[in-house]
Amino acid sequence: MERANFDPAKVLNWEIKGIKEPEDEAIFVGVFLYKHGTPRDYDSIKGITMYHNNVKKDIVNEVVKFLKDKFGGEQAEKGERIFLSSSKEIYSPKEIGGLAKQLESKFALKAVISIEFTDITEEERKKSGLADAKLLPIPGKH
What angle do CA 125, 128, 132 make, to 5 degrees? Predict the structure, then answer.
C-alpha cells in the first residue's frame, strides 16, 4: 500500500481491519475515516473512528491511546465505536499503509485495507499500483 500511487483528494473513505489469529474467534479492531464524517445518531463526526469485536477492554484502551497520541481528537463512544472527533485526517497511501503496518506490529494483528474512491478514472485506477483483482467498479459508474 505504501508504494501505491493515487490522488489522496479522491479518497472517499478508508478502513483498516486488524484481525487477530485465529480468525474463527472473530477478534478484530477496525480503524476508519469517512471524508464527509462518520454518522453518530443524527450528527456526522469528522475524524478517525475505531470499532472492535471480542477485544478485551485493556487492549481497546491501548489502541485508543495509540490513535489519540498519533492523531489527537476528542474521544466519544457509542456502542463498539470510538470516535476521535476533530482528529488529524489521513488519505495518502503512505500514511494509510504506514498506519496498517503499525497496527499489525504493535497489536499483533493481520491488517486488511479497503479504500473507496470518488470520481477515479480507469487510467488512474491502472496507474494506482493497486492489485487489479481488488479494484472493483462502482455500479453505474463504468
Answer: 60
Continuous H helices in the chain: 57-71, 93-107, 122-127
Do residues 74 and 85 lie in contact, with contact meaning Cβ atoms separated by under 8 Å?
yes
How far apart, in whole angstroms, are the C-alpha atoms of residue 57 and residue 3?
34
Which bin fits 64, alpha (ψ -120 to 50), beta or left (φ > 0)?
A: alpha
Cα-flanking dihedrals φ and ψ of residue 96, to 5°?
-65, -45
**CB of 134 closer than 8 Å to CB of 125:** no
For 125-138, what is each residue's pLDDT tens digit? 888 888 766 666 66
Is the pLDDT at 121 greater than 60? The verdict is: yes
Spatial contact of 48 and 89, defined as CB atoms under 8 Å apart: yes
Quickly count: other Cβ atoms within 10 Å of residue 96's Cβ: 23
Closest CA to 28 of 17, 36, 39, 38: 17
| Rounded percentage of the chain residues whose pLDDT exceeds 90 | 69
